[in-house]
Every structure is written in C-alpha cells, then in structure tokens.
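dumping this here so i dont lose it
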C-alpha cells in the first residue's frame, strides 16, 4: 500500500509540474500567457514548426521583451534554429512597478506579435548575418530603429495591426511612462499613421491577387 501511495504521489507531482508550462510540439509557453501567445502565434503560420520558448526573466536591460536565437542554433540551418522570447517579469511605469503578466491581454498579444516579427526577420538571415545583426544592434541606434520597424512591419503584414496599435496606445498615452521613454518609442517604432499605410498597402495587394 505504501508503495502504491508513493507512485501516486510522484504522479501528482508530475501533473502539477506539467501545469507550469504549456507546450506544443515546437512552442513552450508559460501558463500565465498561454492564450495570448497562442493568438499571436496564430498570425504566423510560418512559425508553426519553429522551436520557440517564451520565457519570463527577472529583468531585461532597456526592454520589456526580447527575441533572440539560441546561441548554438545560429550555426544551424534556418529550419533547425530555435529561439527565445524573453519577457521581463516586471515593468516600471512612472513610480510604480507592475507584473508583466498582469498587462491587459490585447497589449500582451501586441507585444508578443512584435517579438514574433523579429523571429520572422531572423529566419530570413544566414548565421553570419545574424552575428552581424547582433553586433550592429548593440552599437548602432539607427540599426536598432531599422530592426524594430521591420519587426512592426512583419506583425502588420501578418494581420496584427489591431494589437500593435493597442500596444502603442498603451505605451504612448496610458502607461504613464516618462517622456524620454515615450520619445524613444516614437523614434524607434512605426507610428500609428505608418501602420495604417502598411495596412492599406497590404489590403491593396491582397485585392489585386
């Protein structure tokens, strides 16, 4: 009988552990953002077989989220690469600190959609190009701007404009961020007006097919 209870106890522990993460064949997602990540991923069918792990991190310097290839996969073929989407556990807004997982779902989906846009960008690059990308990203403000606007563009062309616009509305007007941070966002990312132009171009191309 004791032996039976021991097996049951181990089984229950395994069940509880399984609920901390939700994973598909290729995507590993913390349970706190399962629905948001699934919605964002649904806009990127090209990434269905791409290994991506969404992972909370205590702090990310100068950012709330960050998409990056796993180190060794940079040297693999594009189809065999794996990626991390790192998510800061907390975000500081004005004098207050909030848990990122408590951000409204629509905003979280937009943020994740933007990061998946980075993954789409990385997928088109060779290993050596990715290494160069990483170097330029940390040394050139202009290159950061190009990369962030490209990620926004991928998200919009994949039908995520509603979420991207909601995220920008939150950051620029509702979050209570410092003016310096707001100005940085305005400089680095597509404006709402530019997003709507992309939507018009996308829809025009779609109708022309």
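and the seq i came up w/
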């Amino acid at each position: 009988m004791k032996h039976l209870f021991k097996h049951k106890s181990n089984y229950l522990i395994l069940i509880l552990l399984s609920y901390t993460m939700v994973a598909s064949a290729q995507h590993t997602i913390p349970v706190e953002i399962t629905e948001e990540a699934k919605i964002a991923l649904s806009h990127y069918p090209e990434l269905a077989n791409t290994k991506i792990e969404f992972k909370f991190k205590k702090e990310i310097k100068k950012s709330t989220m960050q998409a990056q290839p796993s180190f060794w996969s940079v040297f693999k073929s594009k189809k065999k690469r794996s990626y991390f989407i790192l998510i800061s556990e907390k975000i500081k807004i004005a004098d207050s600190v909030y848990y990122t997982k408590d951000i409204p779902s629509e905003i979280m989906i937009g943020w994740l959609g933007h990061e998946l846009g980075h993954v789409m960008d990385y997928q088109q690059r060779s290993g050596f190009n990715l290494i160069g990308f990483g170097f330029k990203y940390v040394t050139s403000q202009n290159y950061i701007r190009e990369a962030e606007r490209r990620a926004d563009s991928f998200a919009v062309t994949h039908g995520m404009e509603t979420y991207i616009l909601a995220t920008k509305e939150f950051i620029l007007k509702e979050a209570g961020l410092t003016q310096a941070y707001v100005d940085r966002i305005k400089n680095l990312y597509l404006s709402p007006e530019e997003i709507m132009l992309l939507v018009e171009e996308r829809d025009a191309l779609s109708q022309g097919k």
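The two ends are 69 Å apart (CA to CA).
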